[in-house]
Amino acid sequence: MLVSLRQTLFICVLVSGTVLALSSNSWFMAWVGLELNLMSFIPLMTSKKMELSCEAALKYFLIQAVGSALVIFSAPLLISSEMFYSSILLALLVKVGAAPFHFWLPAIVDGLNWVQLIILMTVQKVAPLFLISIIPNSTFFCRIMMVAALLSSLIGSIGGLNQTSLRKILAFSSINHIGWMLASMTMGESSWLMYFSFYVMISSSICLLFNHQQLFWLPHLVMNKTSLPYTNLVNSFSLLSLGGLPPFTGFIPKWIVIESLSSKGMILPLLVLIVSSLITLYFYLRLSMSYFMLTSVKTKMNIKLSNDFSSSTPVFISMNMFFLLAPTLFILI
């Protein structure tokens, strides 16, 4: 009961810090909100069941402290100068885990469980991404954001190729999606909000699926003898949706970003984003094919029809197949 109450208290402080950062009218209050968010998430990261949780919490604290130090460094500077906003932008890129400051994100995910990973990949990115989006949209900052976007998309796609940890694969996928979000910020505020909303929905559903089945490593996908064939199908569709394969839900935000970039004539950045997305889709296809190609028929035939999936299965399916269920809605939009 005490543990549950403690976690509830820290979650409330975490949400309060995010709301404070979003609603503040000064950079000082935004910094206070980011610090509340940081200090409330670190106790949620520590767990006696996870061997590397304390190490992950320490690494997360150190890298976030570096980002906070950059924000404090910008305090004496003129608020209208490019140096001020450059320091703020670098600090927020560090906090969100965008390239070339991405190195800390894959290093800590093996010390987290799936629920903690959901918070790290979704809630913890809300405030930094929002603060990045309100930085003045000048040519200089747009170039910095586009460079960070292209680096994030390439590093996120290539870094996930040789990984066997499912959590690290999702971490590199998160870096790749951050690149798409930063690129969409140069087009307008509504594009990245829409992209982030779809990303939260899809990535959370995948983490909950893996948490339900207790899958952490690539061999677990093949050796999961308790899973039913339709369970593997839902897992495969969810991964392909996160990779952005049409006509799954994950293709919708990428489609809109592609349309926006092409209308602005930004062909070269668009080409880099598409190539990186194809590389990301490759290792998702590798994960999906392992369900069907590497699992023996005898194992599938001997599986008993147990309560392998809860009643939330239709929710997971609708999250990742919504574009299949209602394609005409997005065509009309």
From TrEMBL:
GO terms for molecular function: NADH dehydrogenase (ubiquinone) activity. One of its GO terms (cellular component) is mitochondrial inner membrane. Residues 24-78, 83-280 form the NADH:quinone oxidoreductase/Mrp antiporter transmembrane domain. The chain crosses the membrane at residues 57-78, 84-105, 117-135, 141-161, 192-213, 233-253, 265-285, 315-332. It is a multi-pass membrane protein. Its main location: mitochondrion. Its EC number is 7.1.1.2. Core subunit of the mitochondrial membrane respiratory chain NADH dehydrogenase (Complex I) that is believed to belong to the minimal assembly required for catalysis. Complex I functions in the transfer of electrons from NADH to the respiratory chain. The immediate electron acceptor for the enzyme is believed to be ubiquinone. This is NADH-ubiquinone oxidoreductase chain 2. The lineage of its organism: Eukaryota, Metazoa, Ecdysozoa, Arthropoda, Crustacea.
